[in-house]
Amino acid sequence: MNLRFPILVFDIETLTDLKAGAHLYHLDLPEEDVEQALTKIRRQESGMDFQRLPLHEIVCISGLWIDEKGYRLFSFSQEQHSEAEMLAKFLSIFDKKQPTLVSWNGSQFDLPVILFRAMYHGLSAPSLFDQGEIDQQKRFNNYQNRYHHRHVDLMDVMAMFNGRNFQKLDDMACLLGFPGKRGETGYHVPEYVRNKQWLELTSYCEGDVLNTWLLYIRWLLLKGQLNQADHQQLLQSTIAYLQTQTQQTEFLQVWQQTSQYTVFTADTFAPKN
């Protein structure tokens, strides 16, 4: 098995930082009117609602850690931590280890948001953002370079680094027999945070992480870094681990159903001799 352990698959969920946005645009408005004003400004700036990256406040960071000992799924959310605390916890991982980082659209969204928000809170993250100024080896393999594999942005590499080929995580997961968004429509993160539905929030974010992990090992199979036996072993060990994670019961149930839609995945949950 040609894997570089440890591996960290990650994803973030965000909301618009209304306080920072009001300060940036000099909005002297009641708080309930700020978001509407920021959306209007953004539409005028870009023709879209998607907010500028520095104004994305992180409300959840989820990750799947894989090493020789097995798997560990984790989440940091606003239920217990401020944004600065979440970032500090996540960034400290890189001070202790140098994992292979895996994401979906992490190069264009997750890592830049982490960079901007870490700077906003005055945090340091040399292990993640060093490009050789501190550790000369990072000149040749760092987390920022598009063509290095210390950070694998699957959306980018599967598009062969051509933006015209970018696909949605949900679409690719469903196409390849994985759960995807599990039938959810729309973006529910603001609702989850507003209603303090922290389990729903972390489960949602972890679902994206798990789909990304499953796509990653399929990509490694394509590249020949895994053979069929290794790939099946990782699938089965992932299933066995998720059976111990009660918050991902639905993910497993949907995966069992969606696996039937492709010939290659139809036997994923078949009883093993």
Automatic annotation (TrEMBL):
Organism: Acinetobacter genomosp. 15BJ
InterPro entries given in the database record: 3'-5'_exonuclease_PolB-like, RNaseH-like_sf, RNaseH_sf
Pfam families: DNA_pol_B_exo2 (PF10108)
Gene3D superfamilies found in the cross-reference section: Ribonuclease H-like superfamily/Ribonuclease H
Predicted 3'-5' exonuclease PolB-like domain: residues covered: 49-257
Gene Ontology MF terms in the entry: exonuclease activity; nucleic acid binding
Name of the protein in its database record: 3'-5' exonuclease
UniProt keyword annotations, A-Z: Exonuclease, Hydrolase, Nuclease
Residues making up the signal peptide according to the UniProt record: none
Highest taxon above the source species: Bacteria
